[in-house]
Hints:
By secondary structure, this protein is an alpha+beta fold. The chain folds into three domains: 2-40 and 286-453 and 676-802, no CATH class; 66-224, no CATH class; 467-671, no CATH class. Strand 14 (512-518) and strand 15 form a beta hairpin. It is found in: Cell membrane.
Amino acid sequence: MLNNWLKIALINYKKNWLSTIINLFGLTIGLTGFMLILMHWNDEESFERWNPGKDNIYYFQTYHKPENSYGNNISIPMAKRAKELIPGVQDYVLFNGSGIGLKMTTKVKTVFQKEGMTATESFFKLFPFKLVSGSYKDALKGESAIALSTEAAKNLFGKTNVAGESVKFDNKNYVVTAVYELPKENSQIKPEFVIHPSMEQFKGDEKNWGNFNYGSFFMLKPGTDPKVVQQKFVKDVFEYRASLDKDSAGMTIQQYLDLYGPTDSILTPLVEIKLHAKASWFGPVDFKTLMILFTLSVLIVILSAINFINLKTAQASQRAKEIGVRKAIGSTKTNLVFQFLMETFLICMASYLLALALTELLLPSFNKFYDKEMVMNDWHIYFYSFAMVLMVTLISGLIPATYLSNFKAIETLKGNFARSKHGVWLRNGILTLQLIISSFFIIGGLIVNQQVNYMMNKDLGYSGKQIMMINFSESDPKPWLKYERLKTEMKKIKGVVDISYGEAVPGNGRSSSSNMDYKDKSIQGQHGSMDYNYLKFINVKLKTGRWLNPNLSSDTINNVMVNEAFVRKFGWKDEDALKNEIRPGFDNKNYKIVGVVKDFNIRSLRTKVEPIIFFHYRETEWKKFNVYNIQLKINPNDIDGTVKRLKAYWQNNVERGYPFDYYFLDQQFAKTFEKYQKQQTLFTILNAMVLMVALLGLFALSSLMIEQKLKDVAIRKTLGASDGTLIVGLTKQFLWITLIAVIISIPISYYLMNEWLKDFAYRIDMPVFPFVLSLISLLILTFAVVSVKAYQATKVNLVKYLKYE
């Protein structure tokens, strides 16, 4: 019986070769896209799974309800109190530096070592990398201890067994206490060296509840409910901190929390940080985009299944007599269903094998696109993709199988089936669903393109052209004096037009935030120290008031400038702002506002411009120690030559042995668009795949349906119908289906794309053009595809179809 079924299947594949090729092609494309996106998802989900304590380690974040904002910082007293008072907390680690680079010297050589991290003593309890040399006990105790990865040990000493050896940097000697091997598995936490945070800063922060300078991981005792710990964090830590300050502030605990925050805590499991953290030190979190891509890949597979269902039901009349004969000789309905399911499974399996080969072929390009190193060695990929094949087999095979097996033997053997309307509603309904999905992809693709183009062309409120930023090393004890010396010397270099410094740099600013108080109102605002000329240097526009002036001593004591967002947040008018003084949380004196500048984007266009104050770096004692760059405006006529001269000067006279770490501001900010440009590219590729699959399916379906009407065409042509009338008559049904499908897709597409646009603070208004273009383009494509077969039908051999009438 099985052998007989296989022969019948092969005969039908050959007979309907076009439908077979289209089904194979569509399912292969759909399954390939599904497997690539699934591999991408699995890779993102695999981070930190190497850690043996992963089930009990949580990443700490905060939430401020009035602002509806999330943070990822904590103060030292808060972390200490949590461990002391919350029963479920076993240990914690604090860190305040990641990805740092230092020039290190050994007896053997001097090396600039990148990707370092500062962390407190418990780091290796929570992240137990494989120990190669030394001991983790007291590995980070004190300022003179350093732990190295095997790669860093080889770079510095040429070997890994270096525990006890000496390393010098920042004019201090450090002892290597441990050498560890980093995990080969995916991890966002892979420091090449680990040292304790600066003890000078650390001791200053130990008693300061408001210095949120650290990120934190907490290790909970096995069996502890993290939600209970979150609740206790609010009660025993946040409210306790509020109780210390509420009396001096003249408010209740709840008023203090609402004003200064945080109002809630969040503990995200270690393995979920990459995709599900609300805020992270280790890179952007964008689970929604991943879900969108996965959903779109599934939709392509569904489209392929729809093609299969449509083509199978359209071929019903060709197999009607076969089914009638089989039923007449005793074949049961169940046998027929299994036969048709087997035929479907063969096509799906062939597509699956082709998809595996195509995925392997496309994987290098996909890896390059996402900067990954994925390989097809994860059994989950094969399991889930094969499960998808089985599901497609059932969905695309069971519907036509059930439909075909329900034919009545008496009708099919009498030849009446070909003239019946069985299956018309099924085919039309499934074709409508296919066109709805196609319409959504066209609309969505156009809206994504418009949003990305809008972001690319939006006035950012500043100009970063020809502005080159050079980062200092972290080792200088008085960096502001270094900047002032370099400013004088580097002005003499040919090609340098102007020089300045700004902490809040567009695209990569280090601006920090704190509460900004005015009377009984407080907001959270950024603060960026700068040189007097910095805002003019990057072409920010002054809205009201004046610029900071180096000839006024008050401009280095307590005068600041603010942006429009700062003024709006307090509910002031611009003129009112110039009459007011604020008290920032980072200082104990009032600051007078002397100027308001127009908003400009420091971060991605996805987020709103935040309230920010600007002041001279000498205005606060601690800010001058944070001066970390020098920015130069370059003559546009000799950029390459100027960069070469600057590099030579820097490496010979400023930081010998350190890399020349620079970038241009406009290029750096452009990197914030890369994710959206990738989304645009992927949506365009998926759009093309969807249209290709849908149009090929439409062509095959229209071919089969028009073939069933050839006798009608012959009769009408004999009665005098013109070719044009016949073509319109044959395509009219498909055009109506397309029109209905687009109308149905419009509200669905509007809702889904509006939800996507809500993620952008700066977004386009929902355009009408994509919806109109979707309708027009699908009508034109439908007519073009169907009319080809309709035109061929008008050339029908009249004698062939009318000789028995």
